[in-house]
Amino acid sequence: MSETWSGEPADVEQLEAVEESESEPDGELPRLRAPDEEQRQHAYGELDIPDDVIVLEGSPDGTRRGVAIVASRYNGDITNKLLESALEELDEAGVRREAVTVMPVPGAFELPLAAMALAKTRRYACVVALGCVVRGETPHFDFIASEAASGLQLAALETGVPVAFGVLTVDVVEQAEARVAKGAEAVRTALEMADAFAQLRASAR
User: Fold this and answer.
1) Range of the domain at 125
2) What is the CATH number of the domain that holds 156?
3) Active site includes 42?
C-alpha cells in the first residue's frame, strides 16, 4: 500500500492541548500548540493482549520466502542507501539473495504500478517499496507523496500481498540522510505481515 514502505509508511503530527487557565477567559477551549520535536517521534509498543484469546502475530523472519523490492531511481543517492539498508535487513532475516527481486522504476509515482504488478504474480510473499520525495517550491511534492502512499496501499488491498511503505517524504535532503534506516524498517514490516498472512491461511485449512 520512499522524490517511504519500508515499508516500513508523510507522518501526521499530533497536537497537544495545553491549558492556559490564567490567560484565557472562562468557557474558551484550551489553545493548541505543536509538541516538541522529541514528542513527535512515533514509538513502537507492545499490545496488552489477554491470555485467553487466540493471537495471530507474524514474525520478521524471511526464511524460504520470496521478497520483491521496487525502488525509485529519483533521488538515487538516498534510495541507494535505503536499498542497502533493506538488503542488510533481509540478510539478517535469513532471506537468501537469490530469493530477492529488485525492480528499479523512474520515480516515486511509478512505485504503486510496479508494486501491483509484482504482487499480482503471486511469486512473492511481500513487496517493499523504496523511494524519496523532497519538498520543493511547487505543489508537486504533495501530489507525488499522496499518490505514492495511496497507490501502494491500493496495491496491497487489491492483491492481498503485503506492500511495505519505505518512501521518505522530507523537506530537505539532510532529513532523508538521517532516515535511511527506513529501508530496514519497511522490510521488517513486510516480513511480519507476510508471516501473519501465512499463519492465517494455514489456520483456515
Assistant:
1) 67-203
2) 3.40.50.960
3) no
